[in-house]
Amino acid sequence: MEKKYIAYFSILLVSLIFISRLFYIQVLASKYKPSPLNNSAVAVKYDYPERGFIYDRNGVLVVANQPSYDVMIVPRDVQALDTVEFCNLLKIDKETFLKRYKKAWTYSPRIPSVFVAQLSKSDYAFLQEKMYKYKGFYIQKRTLRQYPIKSAANVLGYIGEVSPYQLKKNSYYQQGELIGINGVEKQYEEALRGVKGVKFIQRDRFNKEIGPFKDGIYDTLATVGKDVNITLDIELQKYAEDLMVNKRGGIVAIEPSTGEILTLVSSPTYDPNLLVGRERSKNYNILHDKKYENPLYDRSLLAQYPPGSPFKILTGLIGLQEGVITPETRVTCYRGFRYGRRGFMKCHCSYGTVHALNSGIHQSCNAYFASAYKKTIEKYPTAAEGMKKWSDHVKSFGLGDFLHNDLSTGTRGQVPDEKLYNRMYPDFAWGATTNISNAIGQGEITTSPIQLANMTAAIANRGFYYTPHIIKKIDNKPIQIDRFVVPKKTTIDPKHFEPVIEGMLNVFEKGTARASRVEGIEICGKTGTAENFSIINGEKVQFQDHSIFIAFAPKDNPKIAIAIFVENGYWGSRWAAPIASLIIEKYLKGTVSRPYLEKRMFEGSIQDEYEKQRLMLEQKIEKETE
Amino acid sequence: MRKRQNNIFAGVDWILVMFFIVLVFIGWINIYAATVTDTSLSVFDGTTFYGKQLKWIGLSAVLITITMAIDAKFYERFAGFFYVISMLSLAGLFIFGNTVNGATSWYNFGGFSLQPTEFAKVATALALANFLSEPNKDLSNFSTQIRAFLILLVPFVLIILQPDAGSALIYFTLFFVMYREGLPGWYLGLGFILIILFLATLYFGFVTALIIIFSILTLLVLYLLNLKKFHLNREWPKIIVLFICVGTFMYSVDYIFNNIFDQRHRDRFSIVLGKEVDPRGIGYNTNQSMITIGSGGLTGKGFLEGDRTQGNFVPEQQTDYIFSTIGEEWGFVGTSAVIIIFTAFILRIIRVAERQKLKFSRIFGYSVATIFFFHFMINIGMVIGLVPTIGIPLPFFSYGGSSLWGFTILLFVFIRLDADRTYEW
Question: Please, which domain of life does this record's source organism belong to (chain A) (predicted)?
Answer without folding.
Answer: Bacteria
